[in-house]
Structures
1.
Amino acid sequence: MIRATLQQLRVFQAVAEHRSFTKAAEVIHLTQPGVSIQVKRLEEILGVSLFEKVGNQIYLTAEGKALFATCHDLFERLAVFEEELASIHGEVAGPLNLAAVTTAKYFLPNYLGAFLRQHPNVVPQLKASNRERIIERLDANEDDLYIMVTLPQRDDIETHPFLDDHLVVFAHPEHPLAKKKNITLEQLSKERVIAREAGSGIRLTYERMLKEKGVSIEPYMELGSGEAIKQAVMSGIGIGALSTFSLKLELETGRLVVLDVEGFPISRRWHAVHRRGKRLSRAAQAFLEFIQEAEIPGVTQPLDLDD
């Protein structure tokens, strides 16, 4: 009988997933030497090498690959057992793994905070990244739920709308267009537009609208985050387009203003997404139902764009 401990297997799994002892140590909150010792002891127990080093990279050996698959199955079964145990006691508990596009960071913690007040034994983990990376995680089925606006066109997912959003064009309060009404898209095309990177959900949304209107706008500058775009606009470099969720503080304090542009604001909806046929954990199912029903102050009430 193999006498490896669950802790040793969890440490091994973390190293195998991240292909790095250092990264694994950060994720599971151990020191790097501690991780190395646990893996070494596991190899001694099994009598095999689980990793091999080629250059600066580590790779799983054949035995390591076999153990990695076994760990995945083992911990999945343990998670199911924990859910069943909690269900017997009528409790919503256990891990809740979420992945979301970056703009969701402005409202998703509000949902999580309210949800955890009702279910304090749920342990959430939130990964925020750009749309491309979130879809990669969806493809690999790495999480329970994926929070996004611009949905991939595919048949193997289920989508659950839960929150309205608006995409607006904004500028510095002293920008020449700040006080103008009925700004045309042709006028907008002559401005220095600061855009998100190609493929981002926000950019895909407004470029689709522009294409329908027969207008093309070449970005003056591309930046990889909404925060960077806001800073550039507040510095007077140009104008931008973002969700009102990411602009709430700056609009309320007068550091930025919404422009009255043809075709804007663009209304859209946030969705919770998962692979079709996926068995959601009790915690994930409860959170999905919660976000579709909850009224969250400052989130579910739309921002007044007429001020």
2.
Amino acid sequence: MKSNNATVLTLAEKCKNILAANWQGRLNTIKADAEGSKESIYTSKVKYMLKKGKPFIWVPEKDMHNVNTIIDERGSFAVASPTPGPLAKLLHSIKKLPTRVALSGDIAPLKSEKARLAAECLKEVMLSEQQVIGESSYTVSGVLSSSNFITTSRNENLKDLLDEREKYVVYKFNISSCMYIDGHGGTHEVDLKDVQTSKADMLAPLSAKLIDGINQSEARRKALVLFCFVYLNANAKDAFMLAVDRKGFDVLGKVPGPATKDGMPGFLWKEFRFTFKEEAHDVESFCSQLAQMEEEVVRKVSGFSGLA
């Protein structure tokens, strides 16, 4: 396991990974009426796909965004990193926010032919996910199959966009500025050129499944606890996978903290970073290196206890 700055993603790469990992976000447009823009904001949750680094957004036909953008095409779009299943409950309980991307720019509706092409591209994206999962090894399948299908499947969450009974207006979001928001609420402006040139990790579209598949497995979460102990000398009592990328992963570990007011032992949830020896360019490589780390820490702990 490595531990230097070269193994940490840039802010632009983190933003691209978040956008590639999720499929829904909050779109904000300026409310308008017959007299023009009123400078108040209308917001709603919408679904999208990422194509060539830009979000393509599906807005229900009767949504107010479709009226607002006729008068004023300015808008903003906020997307959070996926926090499926037990991870969402943990973050809520400790009042920790998921990392987020906040984009501002112009929202351009696609004409019918381009909207049709966008729908075809969406089909290809969904088929690609099915293909990767279908062709995955036993190790990868073991992780992905442990995840909650309803909350982590891109196909399951986007299939209604292809339902001909539902009517949508498809927009291209032209980005003019990008902000990265960390887990503590701190904002970091990201250079637009860096955003445009950075690419998302190949494993990003399956990151929600990876995170939830690991967190739903008691054995894999015990391995995360051992990672904290063996690699970082941290005495964690529990651990959850927080985020994954090609260079490694982030873990939330439950470690000893200040005593409570009544003198009882206290604890706190602390974030730990683990990096791979080699970059994981796809989900197979990620799961393979994770499995190697699991085997390594078991050997080392067995050696400590004299069981090797």
3.
Amino acid sequence: TQDDIDLGHKDNTAAVKVQTPENTVITASDEHSEPLPQNAGIKLIKEGQFQDTDGIAEEGEMIDYTFTVTNTGNVTLDSVMLTDNMVTGLTQDVDDVVGNNDSLLEVGEVWGYTGSYTITQADINAGQKENTATVTADDPFDTEVSGEGDATVILRGIILEKTGEYQEDGDGAVEGGETISYTFNVTNTTKVSLVNVEVTDDDPLINPIFDSGDTNMDDILDPGETWVYTGSYAITQEDIDAGEKENTATVTVEGPGGDTVSASDSHITVILSADIGDFVWFDFNGNGVQEFGESGVEGVTVELFS
């Protein structure tokens, strides 16, 4: 049982009793202690998320951290202590992530903690915040085990700028199937290199494709680089009726420590605009374009009502 493993051995006694033909009872016994291997282990995972609202890191903004502590060994641990000299408000979750809330970190149990850190100008200048947390615990014989977890949180982030231009085919009429051409500019405003750049759009019909900007062609978004993506969208009658097309793009990248940073940008493309001119004609086919055989009409007064 787990109690046996925590003790490190299993003790038990065997006994034998026999009776002779003269009805004499003879007994014998033997004790044995079987050692049980113990392997105490503990693992700490630390993750941080920069709480930014405007894409610009500013002194006093916060990084929120989560800590996950797991008993990876085969014995019960107690006296669990999590420390991080940079994080304030370090608090254990009320309920175990995995466990029975008995204050013992049993085999396979997972405990969660949270805390926060207020960034400084020095952090902003560095472009990232890196620090390490430590967890310690005691095994059943009060031998200490420990684990470390570090997190690198990117500051200042990335900037995504999305633009769109309606491409009218030249016949003067807005028609379904005409396109909007999109450009997505992704700029690394940090001081660290970013990888696994992915640009997506909330409209699944728009598929941003890398166009240019990776100056040294290393598939790494270096500090200060701007990568350009392009995409297109065929307008529908619903878009024409609305007079515009609004959608949002998102870019996600991965920093040196594996942390993910994202940014989004929305754009409204005006599809339909109308001008009132000074010429009236018989538009027999109703396409809005004066064509051969569609003569002008004199003496017409046009009144607009709001």
4.
Amino acid sequence: MSTWARTGPIAVEVDGTAEGLRIVDYACMEALRIGAELILAAPYHAHAAHSPMQPGQLPEPPAELADASLRAAVAHIRHRYGYGLQLNAVSQEGSRQRVLPTIARHARMLIVGRTRARGPQRLLAAQGNLFLAGRTGCPVVVVPLSWRPSAADRKVAVGIDGTPLSAEALEFAFREAADREGDLIVLHAGEDKVREDAGHSWITRADHAMSEALAPWASEFPEVRVTRFLTGRDAVAALVHESREVGLIVVGAHAGPLAIADPVARRSVAAMTCPVAIVPHHPTVAERERLLAKPVLRGELVVPTY
């Protein structure tokens, strides 16, 4: 059984807002749970935006605003969690797509907030977070700005599809459930296969594939109680339903700098009501060649520019 689990610190994006401190709280709880160092990251642009509504007032330099956001986050953490948590705070000029992967290149996970945007803008933001996971190489946890601690945080759910794309996501889900001393729900959706297979033999094949995928991790983490779900519903709809009862949804996504479409992961990040972990799959050479040869469907590719 191979493992890709990363060690190292937890990185979290700091945006300077009051709601953003909830994302910092989430990161603190993760770091305290596993005994990891916490890195506070604040990207900023070189030039401040000028407001025509305040023509006589010069905007504050973005670097100073980023540093002020970091100082406020550090003060919040020390006030709420004391000095038992090791902190590093980093501000760096550049877009979040460039700065965050650099700061989190040795991290075990990167935690960011989910935008309140709706419709296409939320899908665009979700695609941006998929790019972060692909470029950083570590799981990216997207946390709703409305998140608050609850008893559901101990439960984890992961979506698998029987392909290598789910391998790292499944391992991450088991480790998270073990760290939280909670339960794990493993969901396999087969909407397309249900329509194609009137004899329902896909259930037998899916159950066999799920048993094979779970066996090594169930042996590694015998304390994790696993519930298996096979469903004929759309994968995103099934995961959204589970997100109402769990503290973390885990999905797999492609790693690397190429803009490979992950429509299920993108829609999941945009639609979930709880935090979502995007776990990058690092393909083999053969997998990469197959992906490059596969045509990209119209509407499947969304390229963030920020």
